[in-house]
TrEMBL record, chains A, B:
Gene3D superfamilies recorded: Ureidoglycolate hydrolase (2.60.120.480)
Pfam families attached to this UniProt entry: Ureidogly_lyase
Subunit relationships: Homodimer.
Protein name, per record: Ureidoglycolate lyase
Source species: Hansschlegelia quercus
GO biological process, one term: allantoin catabolic process
Family matches, as InterPro entries: RmlC_Cupin_sf, UAH_cupin, Ureidogly_lyase, Ureidoglycolate_lyase_dom_sf
Its EC number(s): 3.5.1.116
Organism superkingdom: Bacteria
Alphabetical UniProt keywords: Hydrolase, Lyase, Purine metabolism
Recorded GO MF terms: ureidoglycolate hydrolase activity; ureidoglycolate lyase activity
Reactions it catalyzes: (S)-ureidoglycolate = urea + glyoxylate
Length: 166, 166
């Protein structure tokens, strides 16, 4: 066990190496629909490659027991994956940089997301499965469907397993 | 002015000619994340064609004055457009079938969507801009960005203008 991860605030700048933050703050705004709507434009882009589709799904997550054990990461080598919370509960993100075919566990970071912030993991980014703080929370998901194996999992050696300091 | 449109409940079957309903009901469910999440899979598919991207935006809508005047429709000839409510307020959808380069106004229909239902307008489907019942509501949008003109608008002759019976 290593020392617990300390969550840092989710910001576009801090998260840039891992993907996009889906939030209205600092977005390009277009007035549309005869003035009855604002479009916060292009907050994220699906990377799905040729011969595949961007699909919309809903994830219904339940809270993991405390302390939240971080013992694996996954990645989607063929496509991006966006998570946008439907209920406005704060939630958590754990990511790491890539070191070839495995994550570099020395770069493990935890981000604390507000309930009005989503993220789009860039293609191939190592991340922990969706982590919530409420008992249950739904997310709108935009990811890839198509041929090929789009899930890799990496399980930590026991001495690298950690938790989150909350 | 013609007689007001009477909203009908939004269901997958009734909406099928116009696109997909984004809801967990009757969806394909996959248990993921070591049992800590359910994936309601592939509720909608982005149709964006080649040389374009599926992008994620947020629309912030404000309520139109009552009675809501339906005097135009728009369509996106190059891509689908999905609307998923972030706050769970009921909302409205107005669509019509296509009659060549114009909507067939004899087919105008209004759907009443629950706050946990989104829709994905199929490529080219004539629809009224986002219509809400609360004072304000945000939607997550998945649509197309790319070359080409992806907006057509059709303004009704005055005797075809209608409202919604609420």
């Amino acid at each position: 066990m290593t020392s617990p991860l300390v969550p840092e605030p989710l910001t576009k700048a801090a998260f840039a190496p891992f993907g996009e933050v889906i939030e209205t703050e600092d977005a390009e705004v277009r007035i549309i629909n005869q003035g009855f709507a604002k479009r916060f434009h292009g907050l994220a882009r699906a990377e799905i490659g040729h011969g595949a589709e961007a699909i919309i799904s809903i994830f219904r997550a339940t809270r993991r027991p405390s302390p939240i054990r971080i013992d694996m990461l996954e990645r989607h080598p063929l496509g991006s994956q966006a998570f946008a919370p439907i209920q406005p509960h704060d939630w958590l993100i754990v990511v790491a940089e890539d070191a070839g075919a495995e994550p570099d566990l020395a770069t493990l970071r935890c981000f604390y997301a507000r309930g009005d912030q989503g993220v789009n993991y860039a293609l191939g980014v190592w991340h922990f499965p969706v982590l919530i703080l409420a008992d249950a929370q739904d997310f709108l998901i935009v990811d890839r469907e198509g041929p090929g194996e789009n899930l890799r999992e990496f399980f930590f050696p026991e001495d690298a397993v950690t938790t989150i300091a909350l």
